[in-house]
Amino acid sequence: MIHAHMTAWFLALVLFFVALGLHKSGKEKGAKIVQMVLRLFYVLILLTGFWLLFSINIDLMYVLKAAVGLWVIAMLEMILIRTKKNEKASVLWIQFIVAVLLVLYLGFSLPL
Ligand code: HEM
């Protein structure tokens, strides 16, 4: 399940940047399709993440890891929406970078 989880979040990050790139180059239709696929990946991340969470002896650090994971997903979605509306997303970008670094740190440092 850990591999499914890692594949899911890795592909989600790739799809996120693909969607942004398509939007920036004016390909709205493509961007929309990629964003829909991306939302499917959010579900996969959530399913695998909660699966992992409930298959271990939960302690606070894992719950924190999961919360930061949710924060990352929220930022991905909000950045895409703001960018689509041509609104500023710099505060969201900062949060995104902090959350990703934190989730990677927590994810890889916690023993499974
Ligand atoms: C985009 C968001 C996310 C990223 C980048 C991410 C990243 C990671 C990473 C790097 C690991 C460690 C893999 C390893 O040890 O080999 C991991 C494990 C884990 N993730 Fe996520 N994750 C995300 C979202 C979530 C969500 C939403 C949840 C819960 C609802 C979650 C729950 C877990 C749990 C319970 C583990 C196993 C404990 C651990 O080794 O840290 N993750 N994740």
Layout: helices, strands, pairs:
Elements lengths: L1 H23 L3 H28 L4 H25 L5 H20 L3
Describe this entry's structure for a reader:
This protein is mostly helical and 112 residues long. The chain has one domain (2-109). 86% of the residues lie in helices and 0% in strands. The chain has four helices and no strands. The protein has helices at residues 2-24, 28-55, 60-84, 90-109. Helix 1 (2-24) runs antiparallel to helix 2, helix 2 (28-55) packs antiparallel against helix 3 (60-84) and helix 3 (60-84) packs antiparallel against helix 4 (90-109). The chain is globular and about 45 Å long. The mean pLDDT is 96. Protoporphyrin IX containing FE binds next to helix 1, helix 2, helix 3 and helix 4. It comes from Mesobacillus selenatarsenatis (strain DSM 18680 / JCM 14380 / FERM P-15431 / SF-1).
DSSP summary, beta strand count: 0
Q: Mean pLDDT score, rounded?
A: 96
With helices defined by DSSP (H or I, 4 residues minimum), what is the helix count?
A: 4
Query: What gross morphology would you assign?
Result: globular
Instruction: Determine Rg (CA atoms, Å).
Output: 15 Å
H-E string: HHHH
Class from secondary-structure proportions:
mainly alpha
Give the oligomeric state of the chains in this entry, treating copies of one chain as homo and distinct chains as hetero: single chain
Beta-strand content: under 5%
Helix content: over 70%
Biggest β-sheet strands, sense, barrel = none
How many angstroms separate the termini? 11 Å
Subcellular location: Cell membrane
Protein name: UPF0344 protein SAMD00020551_3935
Main location: membrane
InterPro entries: UPF0344 (IPR010899)
